[in-house]
């Protein structure tokens, strides 16, 4: 008699791990497939090592602005050692053993769906009532003449570096590009950012892009906007030379591509289980992350919001649905954070996207040092800004952004308000801690009342 599993999980990044954990805890029979490392991109080559290694530059920037304190030279060797510790030295032995001890079947290899409830790997077939696709994405590399002649890196090469280069060019203007620029500049690397658009962080408010640009310049990063690479070549000294459209040449030790990612779904055979892919190659799912009968997808492979916290959220949705507690996913109030210095956080709609939806929106911008005490107790010559966006008709918050210290933490006030559709009257009635950055929300709401008559 063939063994039948309750669930087969393809890909054990954050999304896959959350589904596996919840189903195993519920006593379900689970088989997991992983072709690389259990924990996925986030644990070994992205979120964890990047945020770990960013902490040193962040602290030094903060200390340099604190009265009575002074920054010290960063120790790359010690920082690298701790990064490697946090990334488990690219060893998932303990993770595999943990799943085996909990009763999971762990399959090392590339999985493929051959039909409803059927998965093959390493020449073996596995049957399951439910298949969960959590295969993630892979980097997209631009193609231009000479791209194979230069020293080109993606996030994996950057966040496993043993020795730092003297200079780099980062192609792209995304969150990853900015974080990488702050990390490398903080350790003394000469950094040039090349972005083909007119502003950084193109999906955020123009004010956010301008503030981010200014802070990068303050760290000594050179930023070229409206710039794209025409060709590349290797210099006689081993350097990488980029020729930009327009003729400018940039010579660096290495080129880092931060130009998006592509879903790992095309070779899975999802169509054989009844699922479809969209024009970008993402697995189409409904509000339950359901792709077809007995088939689900979570995380970046869905193309909905490419964040680890969204993958984990979708995984909880799927696990509950499989366990008979039907849930629908809502993507209102999901935060977006760039762990730069200072941090950049946003949530909800922008003024442009609100307009596209026909929403009568009002935007308020607050300069934090001019409005509240916390920036002054936090640092000398303080900086920081908050923006909020409200729906005039419904009288609720629909968007917010902050470029300021610890913005990744206090953006969640706005996140919860948007998700819970908390009325502006209730928000204005809150009594935030003094002194704290959260006080800025009250200032913004008071300003809204006085200028917009809301």
UniProtKB/TrEMBL annotation:
This is NAD(P)/FAD-dependent oxidoreductase. InterPro entries: FAD/NAD-bd_sf (IPR036188), FAD/NAD-binding_dom (IPR023753), FAD/NAD-linked_Rdtase_dimer_sf (IPR016156), Pyr_nuc-diS_OxRdtase (IPR001100), Pyr_nucl-diS_OxRdtase_dimer (IPR004099). GO terms for molecular function: nucleotide binding; oxidoreductase activity. FAD binds at residues 51, 300. Residues 6-315 form the FAD/NAD(P)-binding domain. Keywords: FAD, Flavoprotein, NAD, Nucleotide-binding. Residues 334-441 form the Pyridine nucleotide-disulphide oxidoreductase dimerisation domain. Pfam families: Pyr_redox_2, Pyr_redox_dim. NAD(+) binds at residues 172-179, 260. Binds 1 FAD per subunit. Its cofactor is FAD. The lineage of its organism: Bacteria, Bacillati, Actinomycetota, Actinomycetes, Micrococcales. Disulfide bonds join 42-47. Belongs to the class-I pyridine nucleotide-disulfide oxidoreductase family. It comes from Paeniglutamicibacter gangotriensis.
């Amino acid at each position: 008699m063939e063994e039948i599993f309750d669930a087969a999980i393809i890909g054990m990044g954050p999304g896959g791990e959350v589904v596996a954990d919840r189903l195993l805890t519920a006593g379900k029979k689970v088989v997991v497939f992983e072709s690389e490392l259990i924990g996925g991109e986030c644990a070994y080559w992205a979120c964890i090592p990047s945020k770990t290694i960013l902490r040193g530059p962040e602290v030094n920037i903060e200390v340099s602005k604190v009265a009575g304190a002074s920054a010290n030279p960063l120790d790359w060797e010690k920082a690298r050692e701790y990064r490697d510790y946090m990334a488990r030295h690219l060893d998932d032995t303990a993770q595999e053993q943990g799943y085996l001890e909990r009763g999971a079947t762990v399959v090392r290899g590339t999985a493929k769906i051959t039909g409803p409830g059927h998965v093959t790997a390493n020449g073996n077939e596995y049957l399951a009532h439910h298949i969960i696709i959590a295969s993630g994405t892979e980097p997209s590399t631009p193609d231009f003449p000479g791209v194979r002649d230069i020293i080109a890196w993606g996030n994996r090469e950057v966040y496993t570096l043993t020795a730092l280069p003297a200079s780099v060019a980062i192609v792209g203007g995304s969150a990853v590009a900015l974080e990488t620029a702050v990390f490398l500049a903080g350790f003394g690397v000469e950094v040039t950012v090349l972005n083909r658009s007119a502003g950084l962080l193109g999906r955020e408010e123009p004010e956010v892009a301008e503030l981010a640009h200014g802070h990068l310049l303050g760290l000594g990063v050179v930023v070229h906007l409206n710039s794209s690479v025409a060709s590349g070549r290797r210099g006689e000294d081993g350097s990488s030379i980029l020729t930009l459209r327009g003729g400018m040449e940039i010579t660096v030790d290495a080129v880092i591509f931060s130009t998006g990612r592509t879903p790992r779904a095309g070779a899975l055979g999802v169509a054989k289980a009844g699922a479809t892919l969209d024009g970008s190659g993402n697995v189409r799912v409904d509000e339950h992350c359901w792709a077809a009968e007995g088939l689900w997808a979570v995380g970046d492979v869905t193309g909905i919001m490419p964040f680890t916290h969204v993958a984990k959220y979708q995984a909880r949705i799927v696990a509950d649905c499989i366990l008979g507690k039907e849930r629908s996913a809502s993507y209102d109030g999901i935060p977006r954070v760039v762990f730069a210095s200072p941090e950049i956080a946003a949530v909800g709609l922008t003024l442009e996207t609100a307009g596209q939806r026909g929403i009568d929106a009002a935007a308020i911008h607050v300069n934090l040092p001019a409005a509240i005490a916390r920036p002054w107790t936090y640092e000398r010559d303080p900086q920081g800004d908050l923006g909020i966006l409200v729906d005039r008709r419904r009288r609720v918050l629909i968007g917010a952004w902050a470029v300021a210290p610890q913005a990744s933490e206090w953006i969640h006030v706005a996140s919860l308000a948007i998700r819970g559709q908390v009325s502006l009257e209730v928000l204005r009635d809150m009594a935030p801690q003094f002194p704290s950055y959260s006080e800025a929300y009250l200032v913004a709401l008071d300003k809204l009342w006085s200028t917009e008559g809301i």
